[in-house]
From TrEMBL:
Gene3D superfamilies: Jelly Rolls (2.60.120.10). SUPFAM superfamilies: RmlC-like cupins (SSF51182). This is Cupin type-1 domain-containing protein. InterPro entries: Cupin_1 (IPR006045), RmlC-like_jellyroll (IPR014710), RmlC_Cupin_sf (IPR011051), Seed_Storage-Functional (IPR050253). It comes from Lithocarpus litseifolius.
Length: 552
């Protein structure tokens, strides 16, 4: 009789798994580019700067046309997270290099974005990195939005993440050295999630959305698509990796019946779910919402509805084991502080680091900047990634500079402005407007500068591909290499006298962050458009100044 019951349960499980597969496939097919651009709209709706809207729409429209064109060309890469299975990453790389290297005007703006998760509780969008010889290390940039009281279910990735809490509050649970550690994160916090480490994210705030920006480093990835999630929790959508085992194996591994297993894999609302969701058929939201000791109690209760009283004790144990193996939870040995906001004594999970609390590395009337490297925050050592944040007042300029050791990825957090990037041969590679939500990158060695628009401050944040102290070399301003190199050799190289060069050098008293342009009046006659770039470079050369690392 029992055997019969098991067979029925097995059949049910098989059906559930098949359904799951079907769901996974249809999920993928739903994600067309139109849907993706709507997501982009959503994300931007909260931003200011309507002036930029039209320009952006235009850009997106072009982007969409381009994508459609690509699709027509038969690439049909709808599921880009799995595309590697259909076409090798290498092929894709070559294709893309051919297509994109130097082929567009705004070539250093990243526009290949895709919504990879979308549920009623939140979404995740990924802006895919440029891949080509000029980028020493590709980094994708992820944007996660979660409604209040929601959970991004437990998973691990084939890529390491550095997350930045753009707005809101979060609780992150991370398995670190086999123990679950939970950390409460607030706006401005930075946190590193190593590849392969299981984690979950909870938006703990009552009435506030959570916005996270993260770098996704594919260097340890499987090379199949952008990145790969392995969901631990899950059900039919997303599918838990556990569901891939034979039911028999699972039943044995967890020492529970098929019926119990079936109860476990019931989530079908996507990777981001409401924790207040009473209609949910999955036990995960409720379980995750509880304090640790309560979780066990709850699981015990779950068991009661399925098991004979005599078996309770052992069953609790097997459930405990299950939880331990799924989430690495310490159950009895570590009792949590009941206020639920303290993260004392929970494993050796590293602490977060708050960018906004940090004293600026450089600050004057025209803005400030901070840079975070492994010396400030040791988890960055493992990620090999640095972080920076810059705030320029209206019209101010980050002096032309070069990153000699890293590629820089930037995300505009607020405001608008322009970014100029220069080719090694001294021609303008890009001179483009940037606005909130834009993602840009600057290859190592390439000189560049950012200028805030006159209408308001420009705040941007980003990642560099080195956790070592990044020593940007300034090409103009009071700490420029021009000033450091001042001498007859430099004067001769510009073809002017040393006195003349020194005069020019004196004109700029500021370094790193330069005041709004007051020199336009010096330009007596308007410049013809074609000489504009050239002339500007000449001006920079004639206004020498600079150097030393300002990050110190
Ligand atoms: C597995 O579960 C059964 C009850 O279903 C129990 O009798 C047995 O002791 C458990 N095995 C282990 C190793 O805990
Ligand atoms: C959960 O809470 C959110 C925000 O308070 C609400 O929008 C949503 O409808 C709730 N879900 C359920 C199932 O009650
Ligand atoms: C950036 O600077 C502006 C003023 O220029 C200020 O209003 C804003 O709060 C600053 N942003 C941060 C994150 O401090
Ligand atoms: C400068 O280099 C870029 C990129 O290699 C190239 O596209 C451009 O034509 C070059 N310009 C000149 C004037 O050599």
């Amino acid at each position: 009789m029992k055997k019969m019951g098991n067979k029925v349960a097995l059949l049910a499980l098989v059906l559930v798994l098949c359904y799951g597969l079907a769901m996974a496939v249809s999920f993928v097919e739903d994600e067309d580019w139109r849907g993706e651009s709507e997501g982009r709209e959503d994300w931007r709706r909260e931003r200011k700067g309507e002036v930029r809207e039209d320009r952006r729409r235009e850009r997106e429209r072009k982007g969409r046309e381009e994508n459609r064109r690509r699709e027509r060309e038969g690439e049909g890469r709808k599921d880009w997270r799995r595309e590697g299975e259909e076409e090798g990453e290498e092929d894709w790389r070559r294709e893309r290099e051919k297509r994109e290297e130097w082929s567009t005007e705004a070539r250093f703006l990243l526009k290949d974005s895709k919504r990879v998760v979308k549920t009623d509780a939140g979404e995740m969008e990924v802006v895919r990195s440029f891949v080509g010889k000029i980028v020493d290390r590709p980094l994708h940039i992820g944007f996660i939005t979660m409604e209040p009281k929601t959970l991004f279910i437990p998973q691990y990735l084939d890529s390491s993440l550095v997350i930045f809490i753009r707005r809101g509050e979060a609780k992150i649970g991370l398995i670190y050295e086999d123990v679950l550690g939970e950390r409460w994160l607030k706006t401005g916090d930075v946190y590193h999630i190593p590849a392969g480490s299981a984690f979950y994210l909870v938006n703990t705030a009552e009435g506030q959305k959570l916005h996270i920006i993260c770098s996704i480093d594919p260097s340890e990835g499987l090379g199949v698509g952008t990145f790969q999630s392995f969901f631990i929790g899950g059900g039919t959508y997303p599918q838990s990796v556990l569901a891939g085992f034979e039911p028999e194996t699972l039943s044995r591994a967890f020492n529970v019946s098929y019926a119990e297993l079936r109860d476990l894999f019931r989530l079908k609302r996507g990777p981001i779910i409401y924790l207040n969701d009473s209609h949910s058929t999955s036990p995960w939201p409720k379980i995750m919402h509880m304090k640790e000791h309560a979780r066990l109690q709850h699981l015990k209760k779950l068991m009661d509805s399925h098991e004979e009283p005599a078996q309770k004790e052992e069953q609790t144990w097997s459930w405990k084991k299950l939880l331990n193996s799924m989430l690495g939870m310490e159950t009895e040995t570590k009792k949590r502080d009941d206020r639920g906001t303290s993260d004392k004594g929970k494993g050796k999970t590293p602490d977060s680091y708050n960018l906004y609390d940090r004293h600026p590395d450089c600050s004057n009337d025209y803005g400030w900047s901070v840079a975070l490297d492994k010396h400030d925050y040791s988890p960055l050592k493992h990620s090999g990634i640095g972080i920076y944040l810059v705030n320029l007042t209206a019209g101010a300029m980050m002096a032309p500079h070069v990153n000699p050791t890293a590629t820089e990825y930037g995300i505009v957090l607020r405001g608008s402005g322009t970014i100029q990037i220069v080719f090694p041969n001294g021609t303008n590679a890009m001179s483009s407007e940037i606005a909130e939500g834009d993602v840009f990158f600057v290859p190592r060695y390439f000189p560049f500068c950012q200028i805030a628009s006159r209408s308001g401050p420009l705040e941007f944040f980003g990642f560099t591909t080195s956790a070592h102290r990044n020593r940007p070399q300034f090409l103009a301003g009071s700490n420029s290499l021009i000033r450091a190199m001042m001498g007859p050799e430099l004067a001769a190289s510009f073809g002017i006298t040393l006195e003349r060069l020194q005069d020019i050098d004196k004109a700029q008293p500021f370094g790193v962050i330069l005041p709004p342009d007051t020199k336009t009046k010096r330009r007596e006659e308007p410049l013809p458009p074609d000489t504009k770039t050239k002339r500007r470079e000449d001006e920079h050369a004639r206004e020498p100044k600079v150097i030393k690392s300002f990050w110190e």
